[in-house]
Amino acid sequence: MTASYLTLHASGELSRRGEAALARLAACDLCPRECGIDRTAGELGFCRTGRLAQATSGDLHFGEEDPLVGERGSGTIFFAQCNLDCVFCQNWDISQGGPWPESSARDLAMAMVALQEKGAANINFVTPSHVAAQILEALPLAVDMGLRLPLIWNCGGYESLSTLRLLDGVVDIYMPDAKFTDPEAARAYCRAPDYPERAREAIREMHRQVGDLVMDASGLAVRGLLVRHLVMPGRLGDALAWLRFLAEEVSPRTYVNVMPQYHPCGQAGHYPELASRPSSEEIEAARAEALRLGLRLDQRRGLSPRLLRRLWGE
């Protein structure tokens, strides 16, 4: 299957999308924060990112879901900063640390092509929501350099519909998180009380664009939606609500990863209710509900609670 963006590039539409996104940086509304600041002039809003993206690393990654990794690894590009402020962030040093070196459009394009030359199965943009314009700016350069791999939008789920529509026909695989269904929890832990509403509408739009996850004969994902939910202590209700939403309002064939590996990171230790790990009963209840609903539950590498305890050194 041909990567979606190649057709748009051939018609010139890919460059036009990049120009439209870059224009929005002058009164930035790329994400639901809608800070309205002029990032082209170096002003910083919630995401603490100006005109240029901050790419912290780019390498082959084997820790993603099996359909994204294949035998060659996923070509991940990690972006620093974030449009969320999750107190429990598992990548706190990247999302809240820095400052990190800035990357020009050419830098990003070269990073994508370098990953392709290493044998990456895809290009996996990690935490890309606040740098959608910079990615769209870099893509035509990357295509001219020979990029042909599918693109993954690996995001926190806090997306603007207008920005997602600029990505229609560009992104091949959407991989959002589905975090909280309670606005007050989203306010307390992510500073985003509108997260549940924004994430639901974003996931619907993502599915409209790319449909259910499609894999080739080798089991490698080539197009579609994959949703992640990190099971958190005492918040089984979020997991069950998201799973029902996916099955009933998106597609009963949605590919979902019920993730058991939460452990207190970032500032989670300051919140007693987040300072432990989810119980094996919570994890198994979430997985059982996914199976009951008929969702396509990721079965990656047997990450059982017992195995996780061993990995955590318990």
Explain the overall architecture.
The protein has 314 residues and is of the alpha/beta class. The protein has a single domain (4-311), classed as Aldolase class I (TIM Barrel, Alpha-Beta Barrel), CATH 3.20.20. The protein has twelve helices and nine strands. It has helices spanning 4-11, 13-23, 66-69, 92-95, 105-117, 132-144, 161-166, 183-190, 195-210, 236-250, 280-292, 305-311; strands spanning 55-61, 74-79, 123-126, 151-155, 173-176, 214-215, 221-230, 255-259, 296-297. Strands 1, 2, 3, 4, 5, 6, 7, 8 and 9 form a nine-stranded mixed sheet that branches. Strand 4 (151-155), helix 7 and strand 5 form a beta-alpha-beta unit. The longest helix is centred in the middle third of the chain and has 16 residues, at 195-210. It is globular. It starts with a helix and ends with a helix.
How many discrete structural domains? Answer: 1
> The CATH topology, please?
TIM Barrel
Number of helices: 12
In terms of structural class, how would the helical and strand content be classed? alpha/beta
**Low-pLDDT ranges:** 301-314
Query: How many E-type strands?
Result: 9
Q: CATH superfamily, please?
A: Aldolase class I
Percentage of helical residues? 25-40%
**What would the principal axes of the Cα set say about the shape?**
globular
The fraction of residues assigned to DSSP E strands is 5-15%
Mean pLDDT: 94
Largest sheet: 9 strands, mixed
- The CATH architecture name reads Alpha-Beta Barrel
Using the CA coordinates, give the radius of gyration: 19 Å
- Series of secondary-structure elements, N-terminal to C-terminal: HHEHEHHEHEHEHHEEHEHEH
Q: What's the CATH class label?
A: Alpha Beta
Distance between the termini: 44 Å
Binding site for [4Fe-4S] cluster: 82, 86, 89
Cofactor: [4Fe-4S] cluster
GO molecular function: catalytic activity; iron-sulfur cluster binding; metal ion binding
Domain Radical SAM core: 77-209
